[in-house]
Amino acid sequence: MPIEKNQVVLFHYSVSDEQGNTVENSRGGEPNAYLHGHGGIIRGLEEALEGREAGDTFSVTVTPDKAYGARKADAVQRVPVKHLVGAKRWKRGMIAQVQTEQGPRHVVVAKVGLKFADVDTNHPMAGKTLTFDVEIIEVRAAEPEEIAHGHAHGPGGHH
């Protein structure tokens, strides 16, 4: 069954940056599940998955414009240290999570003071060209409830 809109795709992946450093790897855990055609993964990866089938393995290099976007120079904000989630002691370069009006967001700590921290609100992978090594595990028709919710349910998905 070729991957097309409104199908649930389960896949394993590893991501590396321009220097070949592995940034993320799903192998060893549950495969990632997403509802194809609903923007649940970065655009460049979703485009590369279109038309492929279970059992396919491939590599694709995704530029920032189809991944996490370009870095924005003016994306540094000052926030109270007590709003940073993920560690007890913060140092420059660490990734923290903060609650925003749009929900939780990952930020990179740029500078830490006693009560406030300057954080870079760019996605940690913004501005990076990424290479994905992908293994498609399963492709199935989405349930009506998954389509209505806009995401896959079950292992590797939501709910």
What does this structure look like?
The chain has 159 residues and is mainly beta. The protein is 8% helix and 39% strand. The chain is built from two helices and nine strands; from the N terminus they run βββαββββββα. Strands 1, 2, 3, 4 and 9 form a five-stranded antiparallel β-sheet that branches. Strands 5-8-7-6 form a four-stranded antiparallel β-sheet, with no helix packed on it. The radius of gyration is 18 Å and the shape is elongated. The two termini are 25 Å apart. The model has no long low-confidence stretch (mean pLDDT 93).
Identify low-pLDDT runs.
none
Structural class: mainly beta
Q: Approximately what portion of the residues adopt beta-strand conformation?
A: 35-45%
The dominant shape is: elongated
How many strands, which pairing sense, and closed or not: the largest β-sheet?
Answer: 5 strands, antiparallel
The number of E-state strands comes to 9
Mean pLDDT level: 93
The H/E string reads EEEHEEEEEEH
Percent of residues in helical segments?
Answer: under 10%
Layout of secondary structure:
Blueprint lengths: L6 E10 L5 E4 L6 E4 L7 H7 L7 E6 L13 E5 L14 E6 L2 E10 L3 E5 L9 E12 L2 H6 L10
Antiparallel strand pairs: 1-2, 1-3, 1-9, 4-9, 5-8, 6-7, 7-8
